Structure formats: structure tokens, C-alpha cells
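At this stage, I needed to go through a protein sequence along with its fold in C-alpha cell form, as given directly below:
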Amino acid sequence: MSSDATPRVLSIQSHVVHGYVGNKSAVFPLQVLGFEVDFINTVQFSTHTGYKHIKGNVLQNEQLDELIEGLVLNEVDYYTHFLTGYSRSPDSLKKIAEIIKKLRQKNPKLLYVCDPVMGDNGEMYVPEEILPVYRDVVVPLADILTPNQFEAELITGIKVKDIGGALKAIEALHAKGVKTVVLSSTDLGDDNSMIALASSAGSCYQIQIKKLDATFTGTGDLFAALFLAWWHKTNNDLKLTLEKTISTLQHIVQDTYQRARTIHPTGKIPRALIELRLVQNKTIIEDPKINITAAQVQC
């Protein structure tokens, strides 16, 4: 083990040259919050895939193996945390499972935060063959899981129509071995807000998130990174971690939205104007003011 007490994260996610998704959305906040972050980019694209033209390349599994082997050979493969997001194929996801097992040989206490990115709003944007690998191989290895409602439904087979259904899905994820489950967003709110739910060690909380008339990309990646950081910094305080995470995220999203609206006052905002303003909100990331509180619910 490294004698330095600084927490060390290995983050394996996508990378974009322009904008903030994947590692571009996760690494900076983690560093600002005092974490050493090593990161492997599963893809290097010009922009995220919501843009019209996508250029770039994909890291092959043998290249990923080579990078991990280099870390192991140089004995710099000790990590306190492991973070994953979007995976493009079942094979790449199976590779992730192998890497977790390898890292846990070096540090059995390694905390794995998994954002099982598969889709949203009833639509999958990864190959369907990825689902059984998440469900049967990767999810049981995770300590913290941060799916949205649709992803939780896919993994558990439970339809979420109300808070009770959401808690059933969360319980089913706990039954797979996940200690802490966070539904990062659900459709259970109203026209003005959506609800996130979190559950750990027999405690459950819900929190309301204000809706904006724009779609942001990279918020799920940012959510998982912030949750990882605050879970560590609050010594596993679920309520406080949820509040710090959501308050940070909401501030960044609202700031991004307001700036976009000053430039583009009406109609649909162009994608380039709603890239998350992370750098401009560095002080908020470091010390978020809690303006949204979580309420306890019966698990």
C-alpha cells in the first residue's frame, strides 16, 4: 500500500476532446476534491455522440490489457476506488470485471462505483447483449451503483411506477450484493421536478431535483464522480453525500443553462452552449452550499 493517505481512483470511461462527458466530466471534480485520479480512456472522440459529426477512435481490449499490465509491472496498481461508466461492448465490460478482481488482489478494500450506462427514457443506446453482463457479472462486484430509473428497471426486471416500485428495484439490486444503490434520476416527480433515491445500510432517502427545459450530457458521469468523492469525505453519510452531490450538480446545470439562455434566449439551445461549466464552478465543486435537502423514506 502507498504510505500517502490521499485516496486514489482509477477511472475507466470515455473521453472527448471538446465538452464534458465520461472522464472529462469525472476527473476534474475528483481532483478538485483531493483525489489522485488515474484514468484510462475507452474511446477518444472529438465530441460526445449527440453532435452531428463524430470522429475518433476506440481503445481495443488488448490495448486496455497492456495499460493495466504496465501499471501492475511498475507496481502502481494500488487504488482505493475504481470508477466506471459507459462501456461500448459486452467484451469490454467483461474486461472491466477482470480488472476489478485484479485490483482487489492488491487492495481487498477497493471501493467500486459503477454507473451502469445503458440508456434513458425507455431507450437503450448500447448493444442489448451488454445487459446480461451488467446484471450477472458486473453489478454483483459493485459497492455503489448509480443507475437511472430505466437502467434499474433493465437490471432488475422490475417496472418502476411509484416510490414503492423504486424501492423494490433498489432492494433487488441490494440482493445482488450492492451495498449502496442510488437511482440518480426517476420519472416519479412532477412537471417541475424529478426525484432521486438512495439506499444504504437500511436507510433510504429521496431528494427532489428541479427540471430545466434543456437536455444536458455528462450529468450522470458527474453524479457518479461526486457521489464517490462525498461518500469518502463524509465517511459514508448517505444523506449528506446525496445533498452535496445534488446541490453541486444542480448549481452547475443551472449556471450552464442560464449562461446559454443569455446567448440563446428562446427555443432549443444549441448543444455547444450546454456543455457543463465545470471549470467555472470549481469553488462550488470544492464547497457546495446545500440548497436541496434529502428526506428519509421508509425502506
